[in-house]
Each structure stands twice: as C-alpha cells, then as structure tokens.
Amino acid sequence: MSIKIFMPALSPTMTEGNLAKWHVKEGDQVNPGDVIAEIETDKATMEVESIDEGIIGKILVAEGTEGVPVNEIIGILIEDGEDASAAAADETPATAKTTPAPTAETEAVLELAATVEETPTPAPVISGGDVKASPLARRIAEQASVDLGAVQGSGAHGKVVRSDVEAAMSGGGAAAQQGNIEISTTGALPQALDVNGNRLFASPLARRMAAKAGLDISVVQGSGPDGRIVKRDIDAAVAKGIAKPVEPEASTGGKAAEEILAVGGDTSEVVKLSTMRKVIAQRMTESKSQVPHFYLTMDCELDELLKIRKALNAAQEDVKISVNDFVIRACAMGLMEVPAANVAYEGEGVMRQFHTADISVAVAIPGGLITPIVRAAEQKGFKRISADMKDLATRAREGKLAPEEYQGGSFSVSNLGMFGVKQFDAVINPPQACILAVGAGEQRPVVKDGEIVPATVMSCTLSVDHRVVDGAIGAELLAAIKRYIENPALMLL
Does residue 23 carry a catalytic annotation? Predict the structure, then answer.
C-alpha cells in the first residue's frame, strides 16, 4: 500500500516552503529516520527525515521547486513490487492543479522576469497535437503565420516559447511564412551558440556568473534538463579551469546581454524576491500599518562599561565579550525590573505576559535578517551570553538554526552601531511589544558638575507597541536599561 510524503510544517507559522534538495531518487529504499530531503523556509534550510519504511516510488515535486504549500504531496512511498505509476496516478501536486493560465498582458512580463531566475517555474503548456507551446508563442505564431510544427522548442521538455518563434521569423526558414502582420523583435536578446554552432541553453544565473568570471560559456558542459547549463556547471568549470576567457562587451559595460533587460528604454533588471525577503516585506508592512508605534530615546554613557569590558576580556581568553552582550544583559535585567513591558499583543482582547527575558537579537544574513533568541538572558552572565550569541549568529548565517531558536522571544535588540549609525527607529517585531535600537558609541561633550567634559555616549531608541505598553511604562523600562548600561557593576550582582 502506498504512503504519501507531505510537505512538512517545520514551524507553527509556516504555510509554504522551497524543496531545496532531494537526498533520494526514485527506486531508493528508505527507512524511518533516513534524511530524504532538504526544505528551505524563510529562515533556514532543514533536513526532513522519513517516518516510514518503503521505496521511493514517485517524486511529485521536483528539486528546486519554490512555494510548495504545507501538506502538499511531494512524493510517494511504495512497497516492494508495488506499481509506482498506479500509486501516483491520482496524486498531482496542488501547485500544478491550481496554477492559473496567464493572460495575454501578463505572460510577456512573466517570460521577461523568468530570465533572471536560475530555475524558473514552467509556464502552463498548451498542446496542439504533438506541439507544445506557451500561449504567447502560439499567439505570435498565429499572427505571423508561422508553422509551430517546424519550430524547434527550447523550453522545458521541448516547449516552444516566444524566443523560438521570433528566431524562426528572423531566420526566414521553413517555419517563417509570409503574413500580413509584422511583429517587431527589436530588443530581442541574442542567442548564444556552443562550439558546434548550435543554440546554447543556459540559465540566466549561469550566464551572469560566466560573464562576471570572464568565462566562455560555450565550452561548458551542461548538467541540467536537456543539457541546460546551470549554476553548478559554472562552479565546476571555474574550479577545473576548463573555460577560457571571453572579452567583455563594450556596449553593456562587460555584462552579458542576457543579464540586462531593456524595458521602456530604461536598462533595469527584474529580480525575484527570496522567500526570506518576501516574509520580511510582509511582516514589516503589517507591523508599520497595524501596530501603533511610539518612540523613546535616551543617551547612555559607556565609559564605565568599556572599562569593565576591557578588564573581563583581559582576565579570560576563550570568549570575547562585546558591548552588545552588555546591552542584551541590561535589557533582560530591565524587563525583570519592569515586567509590565515584558509582554506581547496577541489580539482578541488578550496579551501574553512573559516571566523570563527571551531576547531576540537581529543578525544580518545574506538576503535578509534573522533574530536568534538568547533564552532567559536574565539568568546568564556575560560570558554565557557572548558564547550563545557567537554560536547562534554563526549558525544563523549558515542557515542551520532550528525554528525554536529564532521563533518567539519577548523583546528584541537591533544594533547598527558597528556601521557608524548614530540613532535610528527600529520596527517592532510582532507580536513582541518592544524593540531597542542601539546606535554607535562616540565621544561627545557632556556636562558634569557644571563643567563640559568628554564622554563616550550611545543613543538608544525604544520602539513600543502602544496597544499593550503605555508611555510611562516604556519610559520606565528605557530608564532601567540606561541605568544598567551606565552602571554595569549592577549586572554582576
């Protein structure tokens, strides 16, 4: 009896994911606990283990597919001797069932945008007899009286796309016939040829990589579908040194023609948002439009903190404590002192009261940011906080954090001081009620005992959700954080 393999929900808020990699192929025997695939969420890439024993009878969602809904069937497990085709006959992925056919106006845009994707989602295929062609290609061929049966398709599985019809028209071969309608192909991208003069198929990303590396892509052996050259082929060519240099094109500033999209006379590039960037865009839009922010700013003197930090780092060598580690500890201590600010708005007339200070710390990673959490930071010393942050930040940049390590948290810290930013207002990370924006420490003149003296000062801005935290409570919390930063010995008690 066949067993369905579903796209797992790797976190409570996950609705879709990218099937980054299959570790098995059809016909492989798997046992419970075997890693069968890697799923990319908006924050990390995680391994998926089989929970049943069987043979991989059918893979229904291809490696590299993006936006696969949670609980969609991605594969079929069968028993020895069972017919895989029969088991998978009725299991069509939802992404294939629900994909709407593009309109005449949108298809051209979709084909244009697809030139910047390494693995574009195939457009719906309309079959006429034995000819497979995109709707746009069919319309162009019909208007130009081009026989699609004589056109060689370059799309997925030999599908005829717009560029194939335009190439047939401009080539004047058997496929091109006299018609009453002219279709301008001005601005069409030139087709690259391999060493034998045949048309070369390569993903746009592979072309860009080859252009940037100064490599002749025509001598690279493709390993993608139908010999298509993809990213890994360029990586291999560079590593082996088998590709030869190519002269940059003066007309495009050295970039390959396939990298540039001319739209309305303006040179620009359409780039697809990563899953992480789409989630960030959605959550930040919701936060700024739905959460009533207000902001409180205080200046904190750092000289005493810097002295203690220097002494602690001199006393031990295995961990180097940073100013941010002090800030995390100060925020945790402040939240314990002002518990009314250690809350989250959960809607429908309720809020959550936290009893520990779980500090989410913004960490920049390629393509976005993530907020790993230092759990119960009020119970940890500087050395432990520093070690935890180093480990979390390293694994965050490698995409190896578990969901529980970045989901949740009661309070956030965003520090841009290392970039020289003096002061900024951070966007609240829902459902949390507060986030502290930390600026750079710098020498400023301050007045002490009636005299102007230099001091190292850092501006901190607290963004607060007014639905659950009032101005007085926010001010009390920020004052407590300031007191701990300026008197770091209090955090050692």
Answer: no
